Amino acid sequence: MKTRRILTSASLLAVATLTIGLSGCDKAVTVMSDNEVPRIVSEEIPIGVVVALTGHHAEPYGLPMQRGFELAREEINNIGDVGLRFITVDDMSTPDGAKAAVQRLVDRKVPAIVGLAISTHLKEAAPIAQENRVIAFSSVSSAAGLGRIGDFVFRSSLVTNISIPDGLMATQEKLGYEKVATIYDEIDLYSRSSNEVLRTVLGANRIEILTEEAFKTGDTDFSQQLTRIMAMDPDALFISALSQEIAGILSQTAELEFPESIQIIAPDLTMTEVQAAGDGAEGAIGFIGWSIMSDAPGNQAFVRNYRARYGIDPEPWAAQSYATLHVLANAIKTAESADATAIRDALAQTRVFPTILGRLGGFSFNPDGDALYDQILVVVKNGDLEFLE
């Protein structure tokens, strides 16, 4: 039986009210102190980390996630009231690799596992954690419904059935599109979920879908699908895909001289895809959970520290993972325990915790363990992401 409480409208109002006062803050999420603070738990707590260090998902997801986790762990350990150590396992960019990694960490008796980027992988691996009453806390996965696997499953990304309705409402009001096309990866779980939510919300708002074009993970030629879309002359094109395929589709719109009258919207658009796609990304719109431009609590300090540590700008999945570990550490501190069930109960009750995510930073969980915070709409201008006001 789940122990999560229902997040009421009053709680949501509290998120908005409290975080408005935090939006201009430039402090770290947790304040560092030179004074020694007694640890809540005397020993360092082993935390499992499942990320792609090799394979298809390593560069866009796994390596940035690892950097974000490491930076957060250093900050948390330096504060001193909670100490964490990592046991990191490579999922090798496959569902079987993710399942094996989670089983290995369950056998090591960790109370919590973070990472698990890809929704397809989380769906396969999270039941192992749930069955063994170990927390599975994904920092990237966003396909709808996976939180229902069980009460030990949590996510810090905005899931598709939360982010897409809000993003559609905002962009349709601004752009006024009446007929659209979609293109999606029919293999990947997140991509299918995104397209299904798009279909439902577009239909509910009486926006006509002219065509739904499909491709498969790993495809590199999207010219046939894009040519058919151009022939139908939609007002907008929605892309539901993972990083490499988003970049490939955007790049080929430039090669095919896709008309500017078709607004391209990719819900998970980041600078990784923008840089890879070049001119094809210009003008594209995204719905995202984190921005380097945001003034959410601690975000600008995070950006400076990440640049100083790694010599590059932080990637969104690094930011998501950094925030995830801070949320987990706060739950451990609240629980005053290294017990997985106690930490789970504290996580489930997280309300308006200040993080670097969104534009205001207040982070809460809904009853399914999915994150709630304000998302950010961005548009590509001159090769960079700017707020879509």
Describe this structure in words.
The chain is α/β, with parallel strands linked by helices and 389 residues long. It folds into two domains: 9-158 and 293-374, Rossmann fold; 161-288, Response regulator (Rossmann fold). The chain contains twelve helices and 15 strands. The protein has helices at 9-20, 58-79, 95-107, 119-131, 160-175, 189-204, 223-232, 243-255, 271-277, 299-310, 316-335, 340-348; strands at 45-51, 84-90, 112-115, 135-138, 153-155, 179-185, 208-215, 236-240, 263-265, 285-288, 353-354, 362-365, 371-372, 376-381, 384-387. The strands form four sheets. The protein has a five-stranded parallel sheet with strand order 2-1-3-4-5, sandwiched between helices. A hairpin with a 7-residue loop joins strand 11 (353-354) and strand 12 (362-365). Helix 3 (95-107) runs parallel beside helix 4 and helix 8 (243-255) packs parallel to helix 9 (271-277). The longest helix has 22 residues, at 58-79. The chain is globular, with a radius of gyration of 20 Å. The chain starts with 8 loop residues before the first helix and ends with a strand. The model is unreliable at 1-37 (pLDDT under 50).
